[in-house]
């Protein structure tokens, strides 16, 4: 009897873990394939029965993580996720330390400034966005998730990961958002080598047509990567003949921010031994 009770514990734990995984899968489907999905659609997407999906949705709804639309009876993401997202941003050290530096970089260059971290390996998550000074209508990209290979921020981060992690990313799925997106592993590998040499990455209309970006890595204590900071603007300005002034500004701010985060004074983009952790600014 006692042995049966003990053996049931792992089974119960496994079922609980599976329920959590399915609930997360539902949230991801609503975030990427939504915004509105019904029980039948969700059941087909995550491969479980409709009663199971319905029970999970009811639980998520009770916690404010999803909501049901009265007109269609379909489900959408709930406001509870926004509270969780805001809580994440409030505890994100890179974002909190970046605020004055990002403002200074926006003032110095006249361009929008983005700060990002590597999220779920293949994407970068924008954790701070300073809008371009005195321009027309702009969209706040805070919380945007972008494939790493299509943006300067992603390349600036991945270039300084250990070689084994870089190779895994290069061998995995590489997104295409525009006709300019680079999805060839060999070309990307050469770009990452150049980023390590000069200390910044460039993006030429690879995520949005007409836009360019320049970004540099940011390091924290012990030389570990914290994320990246960069500027985003019209391609005709950022990639003009005098683009070097932008690159210098971005790299200098990334260096100063890294020092504030506790990194040393070594040069981040010096060549380093294979598979070793990067040195920090």
TrEMBL record:
InterPro entries noted in UniProt: ArsR-like_HTH, GAF-like_dom_sf, HTH_MetabolicPath_Reg, Tscrpt_reg_IclR_C, Tscrpt_reg_IclR_N, WH-like_DNA-bd_sf, WH_DNA-bd_sf
Does this UniProt record's set of keywords contain Transcription regulation? yes
**SUPFAM superfamilies according to UniProt:** GAF domain-like, Winged helix' DNA-binding domain
HTH iclR-type domain boundaries = 17-79
Instruction: List each copy of the IclR-ED domain by range.
Output: 80-263
Superkingdom of the organism of origin: Bacteria
Gene3D superfamilies in alphabetical order: 3.30.450.40, Winged helix-like DNA-binding domain superfamily/Winged helix DNA-binding domain
- Protein name per Swiss-Prot or TrEMBL: IclR family transcriptional regulator
Tell me what organism the protein belongs to: Streptomyces sindenensis
Taxonomic lineage is: Bacteria, Bacillati, Actinomycetota, Actinomycetes, Kitasatosporales
């Amino acid at each position: 009897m006692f042995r049966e009770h003990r053996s049931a514990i792992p089974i119960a734990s496994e079922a609980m873990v599976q329920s959590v995984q399915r609930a997360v899968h539902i949230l991801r489907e609503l975030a990427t394939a939504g915004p509105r999905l019904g029980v039948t659609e969700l059941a087909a997407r995550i491969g479980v029965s409709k009663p199971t999906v319905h029970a999970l949705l009811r639980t998520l709804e009770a916690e404010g993580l999803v909501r049901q639309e009265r007109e269609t009876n379909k489900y959408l993401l709930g406001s509870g996720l926004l509270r969780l997202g805001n809580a994440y941003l409030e505890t994100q050290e890179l974002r909190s330390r970046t605020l004055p530096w990002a403002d200074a970089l926006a003032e110095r260059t006249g361009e929008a400034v983005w700060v990002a971290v590597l999220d779920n390996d293949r994407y970068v998550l924008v954790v701070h966005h300073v809008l371009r000074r005195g321009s027309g209508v702009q969209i706040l990209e805070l919380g945007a998730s972008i494939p790493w290979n299509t943006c300067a921020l992603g390349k600036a981060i991945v270039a300084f990961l250990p070689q084994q992690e870089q190779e895994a990313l290069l061998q995995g799925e590489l997104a295409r958002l525009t006709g300019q997106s680079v999805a060839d592993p060999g070309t990307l590998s050469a770009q990452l080598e150049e980023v390590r040499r000069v200390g910044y990455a460039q993006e030429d209309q690879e995520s949005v047509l007409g836009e360019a970006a320049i970004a540099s890595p940011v390091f924290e204590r012990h030389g570990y990567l914290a994320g990246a900071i960069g500027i985003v603007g019209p391609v005709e300005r950022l990639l003009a003949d005098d683009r070097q002034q932008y690159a210098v500004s971005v790299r200098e701010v990334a260096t100063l921010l890294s020092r504030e985060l506790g990194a040393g004074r070594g040069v981040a983009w010096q060549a380093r031994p294979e598979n070793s952790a990067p040195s920090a600014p």
